[in-house]
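Chain A, query sequence.
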Amino acid sequence: MANKSPEQNIGRYKSMTVEGFRLFERLELTDLAPVNLFFGPNNAGKSSILEAVFAHACGYNLDPFLKQCVFRRTGGSVTGVLDLGEQILLTFRDRFTPPYAFTISAEVLDVSAQKRLWDTSPHTLTATFEPGSELANLDPRALGQPTNGLYIDSSIEGGPIVSISRSIEPQSIVGPVRTRLFLGTWAIQLNGGEKARVDLHIPAEIPLVSPFKQAVMHDILGHRNPATGRRVFSLLKRSRLLAEFTAQMAQVFEDVTEIDLYPYPDNTPGVVMVITPDGQQRPLYVFGDGMRRWFYLLGNMIVYKNAIHCIEEIDATLHPDAQQDFARLLVKYTQKYQNQLFVTSHSIEFLDAFLAALYAEESSDLLENEDPVRVFTILPGKLDGQPEVWSRTGREAYKDRQQYGMELRG
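Chain A, predicted structure.
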């Protein structure tokens, strides 16, 4: 597949309409802000919203969408070919007659222009999937006659077992690999342009192309990966922002005076080290999840500039005492580095701390122009798959909570 993406768009999303994706028949999000907080009960579709935003940002770049959205919910592991195929099919709401399809349309506000001008033409992404005959074994009524060539090794008790990594490459297959299996054809079309088609096989070979927008899906446990910490440290150091970042971190975490990284004596990669006030050097991974996630999320806000950041359960592991400082820096980095955030939470305590940090004193350095925050409450859709969406500005949400104690979690 050739690189069919237009020049990467550095603006931010102002509205988005999602049709046929995951559980949504239709979802409309309007008046999107630099920071968008999504609340709602379980299974209302909050995670699916993050995935839809990420899918649109990927554009023609199918590989990260499959890794970060389609296979994210199982950690990239599958029990067999049919499990892998079902995870792909479940991306689409309607699975009665192939090819299956979803559409995501968005309006983008060009923040690079001297004057903030609307880009009135929507950017529409349409994705379709035509399953191969192997997947007919999932549901012959919908996909056609089942095949006789099931991917089974007779030496395996209980059926096929295939372990697929996040790059959709076989890590280990018990028994011989008998064939290169064809799962189906994925097609992507952006703004009515030429369709880009990718045949999905096991093992997979999916080309990387330029995305429509830079986007990052932050895993809820991503801060526990030492390699991630090294990457954040390296880019902060190369950008000459490490000292400033460390000073801000030290204001919240008293154990921090300096952050460094040393290779081990055998020349293997080291880990991020925290120098404590008593002069000890301790790996970042021995500290609590709250401090490590702070380093991971806020560090990535600096590393990935002009980007969409999708963060699930943003309040996870953060102590209430740290949440207001975290909120101020989150909005500061969003504005300074022209990022846009889409985040989910279930915690009304976090929302109160977040809003108080921004609006209790009307801090002028954070609220120079427009309200930087939008709070969405997503209520589960009925059988028609169209959820109810309430939204208010951050300032309105703060007033509703302070004066009326309004429940904004749905």
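DSSP finds ten helices and 17 strands in the chain. The longest helix spans residues 320-336.
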